[in-house]
Design goal:
Blueprint (H helix, E strand, L loop, with lengths): L1 H13 L7 H19 L5 H34 L6 H37 L2 H15 L5 H18 L1 H14 L4
Length: 181
Amino acid sequence: MSKVWGIIGSVFLAFNFMPSLSPFFTIFGYVSLGIALAFYSEDNEKIFNYFLIGAMLSFIASVLFYFKLFAVLTSLIFSVFSSNPLIPITFSVVLYFGVYYIFLVLSAVYFQKSFSILSETTNNRYFKLGGNFLIAGAVLSIFAIGFIITVIGWILVLIGFVTLEEIVDAEIIEQEKLPKN
């Protein structure tokens, strides 16, 4: 059942780039993935704890992103009354994007830590690869390519959950076939 929650959460997070649905997809994705990772963190609690920290930081970054849009619109209104209209707009955009960027990268680092430990626990390399893509996407989010790389990272996490039992079953079969000395 935790595999299904992981798949659902990964799908929601892979599609959270859609502006009108992003807050809902993000919340449902984090809750679903959190349920799945809570099951897999029975052996190592760091899997869930790192994910929870990453989810909270990412949620704060998302709220800041929407707040930044509001701030830019407010700055545009106030710039009408300013002698130099670019100063209020530029300052608010740089300030909010800088804080958003820091939270986004920090959340990706915690997601990567969580998925790296999950990768070692389940012996599934897709989780670690997905975590690495999430960090690369967060760092490159200054450019538009970063958001595409982040989507690829969540899709790799999705592939990790889809192939999870197959990899475990394949290892059991390989261990049964090995001759005992």
